[in-house]
């Protein structure tokens, strides 16, 4: 019986065991049940999709179906609420820059002129003056070319031979040599196939009839070479047939002399009086009798018109005592007629004024645009030029009686490169630029005499450098040089734009920097004789100065002070790179050298392209022009302005070179040139895109995201300029939304901006009414806090960033500092932060910081919510659900792309062990991730890649460097982090925990400062962050602020009001000191402050476009033709 009972018990136990095992297995593979509520939701959503389809099919139907459409839309909204149907939020598609942005064209020849013979292309490429001839004239000129063959060591020309030809190497290699004082020849330039040997000053001497022989310059063949020779005499026959070409060629030669030779030798090498001869070759033939008759005492400080007739002169001067008599003007007239070789004396009638300058008076200042010719009668005029990096001025030369000064600026139309001052009393005749142009229009040959008086002022050194320094052009897309090429020269950008790209070991290409007008390229590699570190190609058509290595060495030997200048330039480059992160190849990374890598730091031209015709593009450009005028001289150009100022045929292809030169001149004069495109792909629109350093694509934020027709045409062309999307919003309209959709439907854009526009921008006005409105607008100073001023600062590289550090409850002081900052009038253009700083920064970027939204900070101190959010502490003490709910209620489903201000925050990626910078995506999620302080909150899973993200304070608690790399000029960094104790106890080589415990529990024992295990781990976590913070404090771009909040703890959110007040009072104190000093003023000043700032009262370009500089005189008033929107 016992055995049976035992067996039964065993069987029962086995059966129970089998039963539980089978049940467990069934639990592991659960059976899904289609619950009733799920079934309702399923069929409800299915019905709603059908309704959506039927609604969309009615969009293009007739007006009779519109009532049904509205009813169905209402039903659709009700269904969404009942079924809790949520539309998926679009995610920004990360796009790589197109190949045209990072790659240079493989073709190195001129496609447009590929049908021409190679020798003709060589001549056209190298002799820039030839490119300004119409093609038939150029081809006629090329008929005079001669082929010459030279053996190795044979001289092409030597000193003593006539300097009257242009040489272009077709194959082989030439060496250009200068004879030194010791009689030895030194190679200053190696001339390879396609390069040339010529001097534009020598060309000028030939066409003015003052041909000279070579004195110290020679050229010899380094190997067997074939050379093209074009005699300059061939120009003379062209000029006889086409006199207008004469004026153009002479102006080009003068422009090259001023912009190429003087720019390279003065602005970069620091040479001044070495460039001019102190004694002119020309001397006046006026006798001493005139000098005695026209004394200083006899001439009052007045201005007189040159008399047209003898009787008229007597009438003019009879009311005054001691006036100069008619013989003085007759002699002066003869002298000017002789000097300028004017055939008709009547050309001077009414165009000459008589002046007397007292000792110490300044007649014209360096940089002036409105210049004149000054012909000295008695006394003398001193010509000064400022030294580089110094306030001192050096006397270049003295203009004596019978000599003229100011011709160079008048001929070129460029700003004056020196100051003209009368050190003692002086009398002179003056011919204004406009009057000289009128004379030149009547007798073009006058330009030769004026140019010759400039050429004889140049020193022999400048004439030598005119052979050695090249003036070259690079078409858009062509490579200036490629990575690993030999470094044999340095380049200076005259106008245009270049982009530097590095090819890494894995073959990936990265943008290193961009270069604009006035930038120096390749100087580090050339001076250190290292291979080219990057590939540099032209973003748009670019003109450059090429300074060969041999020429630089020759200058250093002759003028040792140049070495100091080069060390200064090299030191600036090296120090700038040392303070930046470096790439694997030891080069500055993308984050380095912000003045170069920030595309806005050196923009010269901006094209504005509307998405649709409904965009008020004229009003937008005028608003932007007004904001830019507060930073520097700004020019707005439209096709109507071009035709009005330069003639109806200015945009024709025959005037291509003329228009390009004129536009380049406007870039030199103005800080920014705005190009307003037409509504279609016209020649002017193509010119705008071709000239642009940056293209602004302007759309209306309240419209459906769309791609305009003009944009679609733009996508089919290889545009290398950076593109920015600008969305306009009404002041009283809704905030930004669906920005991701705008960006996703476009190719790669470098960024986007939201602008809140005044009502006048969207008002429909006739052209006359628009002129009246903006004439009044331009009379006032632009509001620095407006969104258009923010866009202006972004385009000019003067934006100001606010960076808010992490520190828990101490971050409540950020709000007080921000309020004090607004009261001080400091504008903010970019916002970023870490931890609590990311939360407050996002609120500020959304433009709605208020106590209502800051209640969630105080809610963090709620005991009830804290207890409810507790969880088993494996990963963290709290689940994070309560914190998620609080933040999501504040930001809802807002995307970072939809914030008013550009925003970023920092997190620590513990999956990849790296720092993450978030500039797009869901606001509340990345704010939550940036504030996930361990061990309180769990990491947040990144919805993009699933990586685990925690508080960014472990890698970069005050990310000022990231804001700097985003292109800001100044970063205001507010640090509220905890301060670690540094005065720790030196306990020796070992430490007993019992001894430390006794020190802590014994009230009479001396307290010792020794960190515990948790503090040691915390300090280890913050090592990289502390180092980064020290670099930020020492940087020149950062204004560091730390409120006195050390007495508050990380979780003291209940003391919000007290912490806020501490931040506000400290901010008021700091910003008051800034206002007394020059900190705020320097923040708002253009980083390229050499440009003259336009003051209040700037003339509106709509009503007063005559301020546009032009090489000809236009007497009629220009009225901008604006189309109503």
Automatic annotation (TrEMBL):
Catalytic activity, as annotated: a 1-acyl-sn-glycero-3-phosphocholine + H2O = sn-glycerol 3-phosphocholine + a fatty acid + H(+); 1-(9Z-octadecenoyl)-sn-glycero-3-phosphocholine + H2O = sn-glycerol 3-phosphocholine + (9Z)-octadecenoate + H(+); 1-hexadecanoyl-sn-glycero-3-phosphocholine + H2O = sn-glycerol 3-phosphocholine + hexadecanoate + H(+); 1-hexadecanoyl-sn-glycero-3-phosphate + H2O = sn-glycerol 3-phosphate + hexadecanoate + H(+)
Task: Tell me where in or outside the cell this protein is found.
Answer: Endoplasmic reticulum membrane
State a GO cellular component annotated for this protein: endoplasmic reticulum membrane
Instruction: State the gene name recorded for this protein.
Output: pnpla6
Q: What is the originating organism of this protein?
A: Sinocyclocheilus rhinocerous
Membrane topology field: Single-pass type III membrane protein
Q: Which residue spans traverse the membrane?
A: 6-25
The superkingdom listed in its UniProt entry is Eukaryota
Keywords carried by this UniProt record: Endoplasmic reticulum, Hydrolase, Lipid degradation, Lipid metabolism, Membrane, Phosphoprotein, Repeat, Transmembrane, Transmembrane helix
Sequence motif GXSXG, residues: 833-837
Family membership noted in the UniProt record: Belongs to the NTE family.
- This entry's Enzyme Commission designation comes to 3.1.1.5
Please tell me whether the keyword Transmembrane is annotated for this protein: yes
Q: Which GO terms describe its molecular function?
A: phosphatidylcholine lysophospholipase activity
The UniProt annotation puts motif GXGXXG at 806-811
Query: Which principal EC class is assigned to this enzyme?
Result: hydrolase
Name this protein carries in UniProt: lysophospholipase
Coarse class of the primary localization is: endoplasmic reticulum
């Amino acid at each position: 019986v016992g055995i049976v009972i035992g067996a039964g018990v065993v069987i029962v136990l086995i059966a129970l065991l089998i039963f539980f095992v089978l049940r467990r297995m069934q639990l592991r593979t659960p059976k899904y049940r289609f619950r009733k509520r799920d079934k309702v939701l399923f069929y409800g959503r299915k019905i709603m999709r059908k309704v959506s389809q039927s609604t969309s099919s009615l969009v293009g139907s007739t007006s009779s179906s519109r009532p049904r459409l509205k009813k169905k839309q209402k039903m659709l909204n009700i269904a969404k609420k009942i079924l809790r149907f949520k539309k998926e939020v679009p995610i920004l598609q990360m796009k790589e820059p197109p190949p045209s942005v990072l790659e240079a064209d493989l073709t190195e020849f001129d496609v447009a002129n590929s049908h021409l013979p190679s020798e003709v292309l060589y001549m056209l490429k190298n002799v820039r003056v030839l490119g300004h001839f119409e093609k038939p004239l150029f081809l006629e000129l090329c008929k005079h070319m001669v082929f010459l063959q030279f053996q190795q060591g044979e001289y092409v020309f030597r000193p003593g031979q006539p300097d009257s030809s242009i040489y272009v190497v077709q194959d082989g290699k030439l060496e250009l040599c200068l004879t030194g004082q010791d009689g030895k020849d030194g190679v200053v330039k190696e001339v390879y196939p396609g390069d040339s040997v010529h001097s534009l000053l020598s060309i000028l001497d030939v066409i003015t009839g003052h041909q000279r022989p070579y004195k110290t310059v020679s050229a010899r063949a380094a190997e067997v070479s074939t050379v093209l020779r074009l005699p300059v005499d061939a120009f003379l026959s062209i000029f006889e047939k086409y006199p207008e070409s004469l004026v153009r060629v002479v102006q080009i030669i003068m422009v090259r002399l001023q912009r190429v030779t003087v720019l390279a030798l003065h602005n970069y090498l620091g040479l001044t009086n070495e460039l001019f001869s102190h004694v002119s070759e020309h001397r006046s033939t006026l006798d001493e009798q005139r000098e005695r008759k026209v004394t200083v005492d006899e001439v009052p400080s007045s201005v007189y018109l040159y008399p047209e007739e003898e009787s008229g002169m007597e009438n003019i001067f009879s009311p005054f005592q001691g006036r100069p008599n008619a013989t003085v003007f007759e002699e002066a007239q003869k002298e000017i007629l002789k000097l300028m070789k004017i055939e008709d004396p009547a050309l001077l009638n009414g165009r000459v004024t008589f002046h007397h300058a007292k000792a110490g008076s300044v007649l014209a200042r360096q940089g002036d645009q409105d210049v004149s010719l000054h012909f000295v009668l008695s006394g003398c005029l001193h010509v000064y030029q400022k030294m580089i990096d110094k306030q001192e001025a050096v006397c270049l030369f003295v203009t004596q009686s019978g000599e003229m000064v100011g011709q160079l600026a008048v001929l070129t139309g460029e700003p004056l490169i020196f100051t003209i001052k009368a050190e003692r009393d002086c009398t002179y005749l003056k011919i204004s630029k406009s009057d000289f142009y009128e004379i030149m229009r009547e007798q073009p040959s006058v330009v030769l005499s004026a140019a010759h008086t400039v050429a004889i002022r140049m020193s022999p050194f400048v004439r030598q450098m005119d052979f050695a320094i090249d003036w070259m052009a690079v078409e858009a897309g062509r490579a200036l040089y490629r990575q690993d090429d030999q470094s044999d020269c340095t380049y200076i950008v005259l106008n245009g734009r270049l982009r530097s790209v590095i090819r890494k070991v894995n073959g990936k290409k990265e943008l290193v920097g961009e270069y604009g007008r006035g930038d120096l390229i390749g100087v580090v590699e050339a001076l250190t004789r290292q291979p080219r570190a990057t590939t540099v190609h032209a973003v748009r058509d670019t003109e450059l100065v090429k300074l060969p290595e041999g020429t630089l060495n020759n200058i250093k030997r002759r003028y040792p002070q140049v070495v100091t200048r080069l060390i200064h330039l090299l030191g600036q480059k090296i120090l700038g790179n040392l303070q930046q992160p470096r790439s694997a190849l030891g080069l500055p990374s993308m984050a380095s050298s912000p003045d170069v890598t920030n595309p806005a730091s050196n923009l010269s031209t901006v094209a504005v392209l509307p998405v649709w015709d409904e965009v008020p593009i004229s009003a937008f450009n005028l608003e932007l022009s007004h904001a830019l005028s507060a930073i520097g001289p700004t020019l707005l150009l439209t096709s109507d302005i071009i035709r009005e100022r330069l003639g109806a045929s200015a945009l024709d292809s025959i005037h291509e070179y003329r228009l390009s030169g004129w536009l380049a001149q406007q870039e030199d004069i103005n800080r920014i040139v705005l190009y307003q495109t037409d509504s279609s792909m016209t020649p002017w629109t193509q010119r705008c895109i071709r000239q642009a350093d940056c293209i602004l694509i302007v759309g209306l934020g309240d419209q459906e995201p769309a791609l305009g027709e003009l944009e679609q045409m733009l996508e089919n062309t290889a545009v290398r300029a950076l593109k920015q999307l600008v969305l306009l919003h009404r002041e009283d309209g809704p905030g930004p939304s669906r920005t991701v959709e705008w960006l996703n439907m476009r190719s790669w854009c470098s960024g986007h901006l939201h602008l809140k526009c005044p009502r006048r921008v969207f008002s429909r006005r006739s052209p006359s009414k628009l002129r009246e409105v903006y004439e009044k607008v331009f009379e006032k100073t632009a509001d620095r806090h407006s969104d258009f001023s923010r866009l202006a600062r972004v385009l000019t590289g003067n934006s100001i960033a606010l960076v808010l550090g992490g520190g828990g409850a101490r971050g409540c002081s950020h709000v007080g500092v921000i309020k004090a900052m607004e009261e001080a009038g400091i504008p903010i253009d970019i916002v970023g932060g870490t931890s609590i700083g990311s939360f407050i920064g996002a609120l500020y970027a959304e433009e709605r910081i208020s106590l209502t939204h800051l209640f969630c900070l105080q809610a963090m101190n709620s005991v009830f919510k804290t207890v409810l959010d507790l969880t088993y502490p494996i990963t963290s003490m709290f689940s994070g659900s309560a914190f998620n709910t609080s933040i999501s209620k504040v930001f809802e489903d807002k995307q970072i792309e939809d914030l008013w201000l550009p925003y970023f925050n920092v997190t620590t990626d513990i999956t990849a062990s790296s720092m993450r910078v978030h500039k797009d995506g869901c606001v509340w999620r990345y704010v939550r991730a940036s504030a996930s302080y361990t061990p309180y909150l769990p990491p947040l899973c990144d919805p993009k890649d699933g990586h685990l993200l925690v508080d960014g304070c472990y890698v970069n608690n005050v990310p000022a460097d990231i804001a700097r790399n985003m292109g800001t000029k100044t970063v205001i960094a507010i640090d509220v982090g905890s301060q670690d104790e540094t005065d720790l106890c030196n306990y020796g080589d070992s430490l007993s925990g019992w001894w430390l415990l006794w020190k802590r529990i014994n009230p009479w024992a001396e307290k010792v400062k020794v960190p515990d295990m948790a503090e040691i781990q915390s300090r280890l976590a913050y090592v990289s962050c502390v180092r980064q913070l020290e670099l930020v404090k020492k940087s020149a771009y950062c204004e560091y602020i730390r409120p006195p909040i050390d007495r508050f703890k990380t979780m003291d959110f209940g003391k919000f009001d007290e912490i806020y007040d501490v931040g506000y009072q400290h901010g008021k104190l700091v910003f008051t000191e800034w206002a007394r000093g020059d900190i705020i003023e320097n923040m708002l000043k253009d980083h390229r402050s050499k440009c003259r700032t336009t003051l209040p009262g700037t003339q509106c370009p709509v009503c007063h476009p005559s301020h546009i500089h032009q090489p000809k005189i236009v007497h009629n008033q220009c009225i901008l033709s604006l189309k109503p929107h």
